[in-house]
Amino acid sequence: MDFGLIGKRALVTGGSHGIGLATAIALAREGCDVAICSRSDDRLAYAREVLQPFQREVIARPCDVHSGESIQAFCTEVIGTWGGVDILVNNVGGGGRWGLASVEDTDEKVWMDVYEKNALATIRFTTRMLPFMRAKKWGRVVTITSRLGREGGGRPWFNMAKAAQTSMMKCLGMNHDLAGDGITFNSIAPGNIMIPGTGWEDEMKRDPHGFQSYVAQECPLGRLGTPEEVAAVVAFICSEQAGLVNGAAIAVDGGESRAF
Ligand SMILES: NC(=O)c1ccc[n+]([C@@H]2O[C@H](COP(=O)([O-])OP(=O)(O)OC[C@H]3O[C@@H](n4cnc5c(N)ncnc54)[C@H](OP(=O)(O)O)[C@@H]3O)[C@@H](O)[C@H]2O)c1
Fold first, then answer.
1. By residue range, what is the domain housing residue 144?
2. CA of 168 to the centre of ligand 1 (A)
3. Which atom of ligand 1 has the smallest separation from the CA of 44?
4. pTM for this one?
């Protein structure tokens, strides 16, 4: 299937690792130029190397999404170089393991930090990138949320922040003005994804037996997902063929979630 993405420009936040890097690769493979940001220069350098074989333009710059100024500086550079982007993937997020099991002993700052990293970052990038999409009468905004943005079960600050992102994509998708300008808004809700060097791998090493029982109980496929499996769905949602998919919250979780 031809996704119709050759020559499109895509910004993937947190595009230097995990789902973000897999998404940047999937979009570059489809012919997109990609702009990525994250905090670590080493990760950005690695991502640039991995993206190089696709022979597309790559902008890779440090940015910390906890800082409005840092987001503004990165967006200004992308807009200054390309005028804007056709595709925005709000991937940065997390905080599902932050705070304490005890809600009353968890500092209020955790709630704010998790909201900032997930929801506020999505608001900041999306509002800055919309004018170019509007002018071109075409755009795709995809936000990586979580199955926990659609159901209970996690730490509340994380569920709330992911639910806020999910709700934002739905509300913008229902906005006739934006839809009339050819822009779609969707969220992708991954289940548990195995990413080297992050939480699940640490868990598997720390307690292999506990990890196996968790997988056997919670994951119908008997395994965790891969970043590439999530990225493949993101790439499709960004395609010309997915024009009717708008305001959707799409589970990519191997059947793990309880929500319909
Ligand atoms: N993995 C899962 O099981 C899973 C499940 C459901 C949902 N998700 C969601 O999927 C998204 C991606 O998660 P992932 O597991 O792929 O994460 P990951 O492998 O840890 O990668 C996160 C990426 O974001 C960057 N990043 C982290 N904090 C940042 C900050 N403050 N400012 C800018 N960049 C930052 C990281 O680079 P630097 O460290 O260099 O900044 C890295 O490029 C998140 O929204 C997460 O909530 C993941």
1. 9-190+226-252
2. 19
3. 40
4. 0.98
Helices 227-238 and 18-29 meet at what angle, rounded to 10? Answer: 50
CATH number, domain of 237, equals 3.40.50.720
Nearest CA to ligand 1 atom 37: 38
Q: Cα angle vertex 133, ends 132, 137, to 5°?
A: 120
Using CB distances shorter than 6 Å, the residues near ligand 1 are: 14, 16-20, 38-40, 43, 63-66, 91-94, 117, 144, 146, 190, 192-193, 195, 198, 227
Could you tell me if 182 and 209 lie in one domain? no
Indicate whether 1 belongs to any domain: no
Give the model confidence (pLDDT) of 20-74 as tens digits.
999 999 999 999 999 999 999 999 999 999 999 999 999 999 999 999 999 999 9
Mark whether 96 and 35 lie in a shared domain. yes
163 and 220 part of one domain: no
Which strands, in side-by-side order, build the sheet including 9-13? 58-62, 33-38, 9-13, 87-90, 139-144, 183-190, 249-252
**Is the CB of residue 257 less than 8 Å from the CB of residue 251?**
yes
Total domain count for the chain? Answer: 2
**Per-residue model confidence as pLDDT tens digits over 71-104:** 999 999 999 999 999 999 999 999 999 999 999 9
